[in-house]
Amino acid sequence: MDADPAKPVSAIPSHVVGGQAPKVPTEVRDQKERDDLKNAIDSSNRGRQPVDFDGPNGYFPAKAVAADFTGSSEKKKHAIHNGEIDVEGYNEGSMTPLKTSRAHSPYTQHPTIDFDGLSWPSKGTLERKEATDEEKAERLQKLTGAVRTMLECLGEDPDREGLRDTPDRYAKALLFFTKGYEENLRDIVNGAVFHEDHDELVIVKDIEIFSLCEHHLVPFTGKMHIGYIPNRRVIGLSKLARIAEMFSRRLQVQERLTKQVALALSEMLQPQGVAVVVESSHLCMVMRGVQKTGASTTTSCMLGRMRSTAKTREEFLRLIDRR
Q1: How many Cα atoms occupy the beta-carbon half-sphere of 65 within 13 Å?
Q2: Which has the higher per-residue pLDDT, 110 or 221?
Q3: Disordered: where is this region (predicted)?
Q4: Which of 100, 158, 271, 284 could be disulfide-bonded to 216 (CB atoms 3.0-4.6 Å)?
């Protein structure tokens, strides 16, 4: 008689099949935890290894690719379920290089990050960013004339003593309020992305933001809280505040601002998860319209594990005291 065929090996551990889990002595367990912690510290003390963005496999191309509004240049698209993009699987396990073409619209679900400094196709933005000193002076003069016209339309006399220099002052102030158009992500990060053996939450909270509402050109101000779970790649902490500053110093709506910061970090670090929460007060609600002075607006954008794992999301919200 032929021998019985070999029995398949069970995927269930033997101690589970028997119904009894082995008891690990407390001393052994504690020693293992100490050893694991020591190994992690020793590994971290080897020194940070900066990410080489300009290497052969670097993330930053020498020249950003022009936007392809037909969408034909995209090699891989996100899955679409019930008319919506699958956000949960947005960047989990992604090892693709940074996308550099601009989004078709500022309202798309996943606007790409353009390292020419543009996060969506706004006419004239790149022209302003790359302007020469002569072109900047011409732009300032043109804007000053527009402010003077505005004062005249309001019924004022731009030549009276109190308003004589106001058109020039306001033009300079407005250019400063929107200086984010002249900055790009690559220059802000400036190589401050490092390989690091860390996979726990990193949070920078209470980052002050000042922006202009694009609907009425009046300010909205507040605080931004940023958290991410590294995937062996961390960024200098001050860069988080600088990224928030770059995107806020543009004509914005709060919803888009929140999403842009989250997506920029997702593209830059390819982390396990990203969370951004913005709390702000809008003068377009306070000074005009409904005139509710106590109203505040909170928006959030969660990607990766921050969105798909409830415990991780709750930990972030608890640590920023917003749960």
Answers
A1: 18
A2: 221
A3: 1-56, 97-121
A4: 284
